Amino acid sequence: MQSSRIDFISKFNDLINVALAASGEFPDNLCDYLVSEFDLEAVVIVKIKENGFEFLGKSSYAKKSYDINSKLVCTHCISINSTST
Question: How many domains does one find in the chain?
Fold first, then answer.
């Protein structure tokens, strides 16, 4: 149990240091952190644009087609095309 706490603090500290350095690798490191802490298969961070999604970061096990700064067009996506209240 003690070693898992040390491992958690070490990973969290590394993530904070990358964030404070304003590194461009932060979104990818955040995704890898979320995968390891929550036992997920993969994580992708996206930004919602007017006509689709822009990929900002991905974990190392995410599909290679989710390249950083690439876009996925969604012409039928109701949540993007409709106005929010």
Answer: 1
Does an H or E element contain 71, and which?
Answer: strand 71-73
Q: Which domain holds residue 7?
A: 2-81
The pair of three-digit structure tokens given for residue 35, joined into one six-digit string: 């995968």
Exposed/middle/buried for residue 58 (C-beta within 10 Å: 0-12, 13-18, 19+): buried
Whole-model pTM?
0.74
What is the per-residue pLDDT across 7-58, written as a single tens digit (0 to 9) for each? Answer: 888 888 888 888 899 888 899 889 999 998 899 999 999 888 777 888 889 9
Confirm if 58 and 66 have CB atoms less than 8 A apart: yes
Cα 64 to chain centroid distance, Å, stands at: 14
